[in-house]
Amino acid sequence: MRNSLRLVAVGAALAAASFATSASAAATATATATAEILSSLTLTADSALNFGQIAPNTGGTVTVNADNTVSQTGGVVWTGTRAPAGFTVTGSNNASVVVTLPTTASTLYLGGNPAATDTMSLDSFNTDPVGAFQLSGTGQGNFTVGGRLTVGANQAAGTYSGTFDVSVEYQ
């Protein structure tokens, strides 16, 4: 029994020593946490996407790209001022933003009236600059948006208009 007590005492002493060794090997450090709150983004449409004046003839497409290049397919003939839509985004200085364009076609209505039966389809949206871009040191940036307009062979004469949504977010 005496030997058993000695073994228990030795075991307890060894266990206490190992706990003391573990405790003395521990270390503590303090870390700092930070967060930067960005300014709310604002987006302003400065100018409309303008396809100019179009003679439909046998129909086709007219494309006004965001980089100011223009093209047409089919029998359409067009003239006049053509220009991509212009936008200004304002947010935090030197922050990166990315533009999101429509993924489905928008409709342009004769006379801008959604009840009109004469319509044209606007799709293939593109932007310049492409992808994300950095706002200036004053927190502003500009970009343009272009697209492709499909014109029917017997498109009714008149002015067509419609809308499309563009959004920006921090990247």
Order of helices and strands: HEEEEEEEEEEEEE
The main sheet comes to: 8 strands, antiparallel
The CATH topology corresponds to Immunoglobulin-like
Count of spatially separate domains: 1
**End-to-end Cα distance:** 74 Å
Q: What structural category characterises the helix and strand content?
A: mainly beta
| Unreliably modeled segments | 1-5
Estimate percent helicity: 10-25%
How much of the sequence lies in strands comes to 35-45%
Per CATH, which architecture? Sandwich
How many strand elements?
13
What is the average per-residue confidence, as pLDDT, rounded to a whole number? 90
- Count of alpha/pi helices: 1
Rg of Cα set: 33 Å
The CATH class designation is Mainly Beta
Structural descriptors:
8-stranded antiparallel sheet; 3-stranded antiparallel sheet; 171 residues; mainly beta; Immunoglobulin-like
Structure, explained:
- With 171 residues, the chain is mainly β.
- The chain has one domain: Immunoglobulin-like (Sandwich), CATH 2.60.40.
- It is 14% helix and 40% strand.
- Strands 1, 3, 4, 6, 8, 9, 11 and 12 form an eight-stranded antiparallel β-sheet that branches. Strands 10-7-13 form a three-stranded antiparallel β-sheet, with no helix packed on it.
- The N terminus is likely disordered.
Q: What's the helix and strand layout?
A:
Blueprint: H1 2-25, E1 42-47, E2 53-55, E3 60-64, E4 70-74, E5 77-79, E6 85-90, E7 96-100, E8 106-110, E9 119-128, E10 133-134, E11 140-151, E12 160-161, E13 167-170
Antiparallel strand pairs: 1-6, 2-5, 3-4, 3-11, 6-11, 7-10, 7-13, 8-9, 8-12, 9-11
